[in-house]
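Technical annex, item 7. During the second reporting period the consortium partners agreed on a shared format for inverse folding records so that results from different sites could be compared directly. Each record opens with the tokenized structure and is followed by the designed sequence. A conforming record, contributed by the partner at site C, is shown below for reference.
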């Protein structure tokens, strides 16, 4: 999306066809597959969720890998102040609801 001079958000028009949604699927037994499975359930994930779920400290690595494979994962900044860093923010990762619905439809679950 873009913001024009009046502060209005909108989609940029394109004369090119929109590519089909065809991301690469990780194996479900991998950490990337587990992360994707959680995101497809509508979960918002942060670093601590991955530590608690699979004892891995590297959520951003798997998020970036999934993005590279075509998954439009969004990052939402959330304030998480600490005594040492009152301005600290963390990222929550999620898939847009429209993508989740599209995947469910592709899999025949909708």
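Designed sequence (site C submission):
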């Amino acid at each position: 999306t873009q913001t024009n001079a009046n502060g209005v958000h909108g989609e940029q028009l394109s004369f090119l066809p929109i590519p089909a949604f065809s991301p690469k699927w990780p194996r479900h037994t991998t950490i990337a597959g587990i992360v994707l499975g959680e995101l497809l359930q509508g979960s918002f994930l942060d670093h601590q969720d991955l530590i608690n779920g699979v004892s891995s400290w590297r959520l951003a690595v798997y998020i970036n890998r999934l993005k590279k494979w075509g998954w439009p994962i969004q990052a939402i900044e959330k304030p998480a102040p600490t005594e040492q860093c009152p301005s600290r923010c963390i990222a929550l990762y999620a898939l847009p609801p429209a993508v989740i619905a599209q995947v469910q439809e592709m899999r025949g679950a909708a």
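Residues 31-40 form the longest helix (10 residues). The first strand starts at residue 2 and ends at 3. All partners now use this format for quarterly exchanges.
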